[in-house]
Design a protein that fits this description.
The protein has 16 helices and 37 strands. It is an alpha+beta fold and 681 residues long.
Length: 681
């Protein structure tokens, strides 16, 4: 009989992490090097490796959940070629006009150069026809100009095309007609329609989001097809919104995967630490290329629709994540004025850091850890031996340029990397109106725990929690995620003028669309759940605040409750609200529904306290020289030998298969009943 395995696979810049869950609740984790040239190879290698560890066959796999960076990397690296854009006649410069905002504020106005648009003006075609903001037709769709545009793209070999016609969020008929023309005149084209990608107002953001979808669709769909050809199991893909969908559904809107990988880590961290009573935390996912930070409030990662990837605004629901180029592979370099910098350039998986011995040329954060003795001389249980001498030679050359001792240069690299991570945490907390000192840090990923002690000092955090198998937590998180399908519709109307019947009709329509998507995923009616929300603002404001909406009939009480939640959220975010001020009426803007298909989650059992002496001595494997403030012979521990209640005092190094925790002097780490290491001063 088949064993009904569920496997989570997270493809990172350096390693591909794999977690398998057996039908009896047994978890097996492993890693394999990523293959940037074709991530599908690393994916297949990871599946084969974990099946070998389990003694299982491909036919034993019931489902594969996957977090992918294919879409993310294409956007970050600006690999966008031969993309075309169809818009309403007269609005061809919409991408050039964009928004007036300047990165880093107006102090940067004199120096900032507008980057190239995602589609240059010469590849934009206007099509006749016009709708107003209610969806009423002012001028009929002009098929002749549509045919001319389609043939123009066909004759020039432009095969990825985004279509965003004015006010199509209110009525998609003109865009659907444009798709029919493209199918007839240019059948080889890959087409994305804004009414399907983002049925929400703001023409510029809707245009760019649609174009991003069209730009990544060939790469993502080709990648998913290659994976599907290697595995026979059902393939679920992580979305940016914190849910998974089948590969077939994701292929329709691949823009939903632009933060696929980082989202799984935040969800896995929320799931693990909530079992030990920590419902609100800051998560830090440290990888080889970058570090991703997010906030979990009351057990759920915070969401945003104002995100961006690289220089492209992507206005879809996504977990609110800040990413910085501060991973283990981040390269240390000297700026023209002689200052030491770390990142954002990364050595990646190939050639990797100097200590990997694969021809790397730049000193990295991992090299600094290796030279200071804070990581073992081999990774992944001996699979990746480290050439510490090569790292030391590279550091010696850099230290000579800086006029520092090797140890001081290495410590300086780690200090800069810690501050880069700390600044990312401040952006996700302090700039969101949250006091960072109220939230424990959940540090995971291969390099996440390495700087945990320093971050406690820099930010004044109460504690750091390092979950079990932190290097594979993102892959584990993929096994905790529900199927999720988001729908949105713009209806701009003042609260006093809002017709409850209209409100009910729109929510019913959105829930119908989400139900159809869940039905395609195999969820019967009694297993579908719907979460409503709404975007509101005060009249005259440019942006909205998203708040949850209750279930039930949208009557006067429903409206009053949503408005009350908006006032509360506005006050929490900005420090004020106009709760009882009739001069500032409330305006409804967007209505949203998330259709949720719940899955069976792994069960985390609490372990009984250990019967040892409490200091972890049974887990101690020896000592080695480690540099914190000075060189000292430092105790080394194996994490899997620690039992609940054990407390290790720093200085110490706690090692495991996929990660390492250097415990600085003055810090202690205690293993709790769920296998988490809790680090405090």
């Amino acid at each position: 009989m088949a064993r009904r395995l569920r496997i989570g696979i997270d493809t990172g810049g350096t390693f591909t992490d794999v977690v398998a869950l057996d039908g009896d609740g047994r978890l097996v984790t492993t890693k394999t090097p990523s293959t940037p040239g074709d991530p599908a190879e690393g994916f297949a290698d990871g599946v084969g490796k974990v099946l070998g560890l389990l003694g299982a066959e491909p036919g034993d796999v019931a489902a594969l959940s996957h977090g992918t960076t294919v879409a993310t990397n294409r956007l970050l690296e600006d690999r966008i070629d031969d993309l075309g854009f169809v818009t309403t006649e007269g609005f061809e410069p919409i991408l050039e006009i964009a928004r007036q905002s300047v990165p880093d504020g107006y102090g940067n106005s004199y120096f900032w150069v507008k980057p190239p648009r995602i589609v240059p003006l010469h590849r934009v075609r206007g099509v006749g026809g016009r709708l107003d903001h209610t969806g009423a037709e002012i001028r009929p769709f002009d098929e002749a100009s549509a045919v001319a545009a389609a043939r123009w793209f066909r004759d020039r070999g432009v095969r990825a095309i985004g279509v965003c016609l004015l006010h199509s969020y209110a009525d998609p008929s003109h865009e659907l007609a444009m798709r029919d023309v493209l199918r007839r005149e240019h059948p080889d084209a890959v087409v994305s329609l804004s009414c399907e990608v983002l049925r929400e107002y703001r023409e510029y953001e809707r245009s760019v989001t649609t174009l991003v979808d069209a730009a990544v669709k060939p790469a993502v769909n080709g990648y998913l097809a290659r994976i599907a050809g290697r595995v026979a199991a059902r393939l679920l893909v992580m979305q940016s919104n914190g849910g998974v969908l089948s590969a077939d559904e994701v292929a329709r809107q691949p823009v939903t995967t632009v933060l696929s990988g980082p989202a799984a880590g935040a969800l896995g961290a929320a799931f693990v630490v909530s079992r030990s009573g920590r419902r609100s935390v800051v998560t830090l996912d440290g990888g080889g290329t970058s570090t991703d930070v997010a906030v979990v409030l009351d057990g759920e990662p915070t969401l945003t629709t104002e995100g961006s990837v690289g220089r492209h605004p992507v206005k879809i629901p996504m977990i609110d994540i800040v990413t910085v180029g501060a991973g283990g592979g981040s390269v240390a370099w000297r700026s023209p004025d002689g200052a030491l910098k770390v990142g954002p350039r990364s050595a990646g998986a190939d050639p990797g850091p100097l200590c990997y011995g694969r021809g790397g040329t730049g000193v990295t954060v991992t090299d600094a850890h290796a030279v200071l003795g804070r990581i073992p001389p081999h990774l992944l249980g001996g699979e990746v031996p480290l050439d510490v001498d090569a790292a030391r030679r590279g550091l010696r050359a850099l230290a000579g340029e800086l006029g520092l001792a090797v140890e001081r240069a290495a410590a300086g690299i780690l200090e800069i990397s810690a501050w880069n991570q700390a600044n990312a945490i401040r952006r996700i907390t302090v700039k969101r109106g949250l006091d960072v000192r109220d939230y424990p840090l959940v540090a995971f990923g291969g390099s996440g725990p390495l700087l945990a002690c320093r971050l406690l000092d820099v930010l004044g955090l109460p504690a750091a929690v390092v979950p079990e198998n932190p290097g594979s937590l993102s892959a584990f998180g993929l096994l905790t995620v529900d199927v999720k399908s988001d729908r949105v519709r713009t209806r701009v109307v003042r609260d006093a003028e809002l017709d409850p019947a209209l409100l009910g009709a729109v929510y019913a329509d959105l829930e119908g669309e989400a139900a159809a998507a869940l039905a395609r995923e195999g969820f019967p009616a009694d297993r579908r759940r719907f979460a409503r929300s709404a975007d509101l603002r005060y009249c005259g404001q440019a942006f909205e605040v998203r708040v949850p909406a209750p279930a039930g009939r949208p009557d006067a009480a429903f409206r009053a409750e949503v408005v009350r939640r908006f006032h509360d959220a506005h006050e929490a975010l900005y420090g004020y609200c106009y709760r009882d001020d009739p001069r500032h009426p409330v305006e409804w803007v967007n209505l949203r529904v998330s259709g949720i298909g719940p899955i069976d989650r792994p069960r985390l059992a609490e372990r009984p306290p250990g019967d040892g002496d409490g200091d972890g001595s049974r887990a101690r494997t020896g000592t080695r020289p480690v540099y914190f403030d000075a060189w000292a012979e430092t105790a080394v521990y194996r994490r899997e030998r620690l039992v609940p209640g054990d407390t290790v005092a720093g200085p110490a190094v706690i090692e495991e298969f996929g990660s390492t925790l250097p415990l600085h002097p003055g810090f202690t780490a205690t293993l709790d009943g769920y296998g988490n290491l809790v680090v405090t001063r």
